[in-house]
């Protein structure tokens, strides 16, 4: 957007509203110069998922203001319990105004292989291609072969299902554990992050992250690095082995007791 001369306007989302974008927030941010809406659900860093009703309300606003919607759905298969992922472009009237972004990094554990894709109206993708072809030659050959195998091999599909089940178990363990030790944590429905509040500690997110790293060797990411809505929160990733999550929670518990939480 900046490359095209646009101005980025951030719209914070908050735990009190399950970190979802509301039509009222969007309407307030729109001006006569607004052209594009960029959204990303399931969400990094919160793990929030927007349901069909919530996304449909956003779609109505986009249609009313004739906005192009760029929908980043890189975590589309990583949703848990009875929640579902809704593809924005599949909503009524949205295919002709939506650029869908996806890739192999998260759904197929191919982070670092740099295989992604965009799907949307031909005229929009054609404009993207004019820039893309002078910045990047092509996706790496090995990554393309791996992506093809991931999309066509039944064994790969079984592995994805096992991964999602395992992530769901780790999600439940980490979120419950964070709440039990004194860090109020929003219930993430997708992706692979927990986003607890550190408000009870009396520290801001940067002080908390730095002290936790130095004193207990546990790494978390300050939430405000992702936008204003992340103030007072930290991001915890759970795609690691369960024993490591157990150790991390034990160290965080010790850290919180040290500071009187």
Describe this structure in words.
There is one protein chain. The chain has helices at 23-29, 52-64, 122-135, 141-152, 154-181, 205-216, 242-258; strands spanning 36-40, 68-72, 98-103, 116-119, 193-194, 221-222, 234-237. It has 261 residues and is of the alpha/beta class. The strands form 2 sheets. A 4-stranded mixed beta sheet has the order 1-2-3-4, with no helix packed on it. It has a 3-stranded antiparallel beta sheet with strand order 5-7-6, with helices on one face. α5 (154-181) runs parallel beside α7.
List the helices and strands and how they pair.
Layout: H1 23-29, E1 36-40, H2 52-64, E2 68-72, E3 98-103, E4 116-119, H3 122-135, H4 141-152, H5 154-181, E5 193-194, H6 205-216, E6 221-222, E7 234-237, H7 242-258
Helix pairs in contact: 5-7
């Amino acid at each position: 957007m900046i490359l095209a001369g646009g101005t980025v306007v951030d719209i914070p989302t908050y735990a009190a509203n399950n970190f979802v974008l509301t039509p009222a927030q969007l309407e307030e941010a729109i001006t006569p110069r607004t052209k594009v809406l960029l959204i990303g659900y399931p969400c990094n860093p919160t793990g929030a998922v927007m349901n069909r009703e919530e996304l449909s309300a956003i779609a109505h606003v986009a249609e009313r203001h004739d906005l192009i919607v760029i929908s980043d759905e890189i975590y589309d298969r990583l949703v848990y319990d009875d929640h579902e992922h809704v593809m924005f472009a599949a909503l009524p009237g949205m295919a002709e105004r939506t650029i869908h972004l996806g890739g192999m990094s998260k759904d197929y554990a191919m982070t670092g292989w740099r295989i992604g894709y965009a799907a949307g109206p031909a005229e929009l993708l054609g404009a993207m291609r004019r820039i893309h072809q002078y910045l990047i030659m092509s996706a790496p050959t090995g990554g393309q072969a791996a992506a093809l195998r991931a999309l066509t091999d039944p064994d790969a599909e079984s592995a994805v299902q096992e991964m999602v089940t395992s992530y769901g178990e780790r999600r439940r363990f980490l979120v419950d554990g964070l709440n039990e030790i004194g860090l109020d944590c929003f219930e993430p429905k997708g992706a692979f992050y927990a986003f607890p509040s550190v408000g009870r500690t009396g520290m801001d997110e940067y002080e908390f992250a730095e002290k936790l790293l130095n004193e207990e060797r546990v790494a978390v990411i300050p939430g405000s690095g992702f936008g204003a809505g992340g103030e007072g929160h930290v991001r915890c990733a759970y795609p690691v082995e369960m024993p490591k999550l157990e150790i991390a929670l034990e160290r965080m518990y010790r850290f919180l007791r040290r500071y009187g939480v």
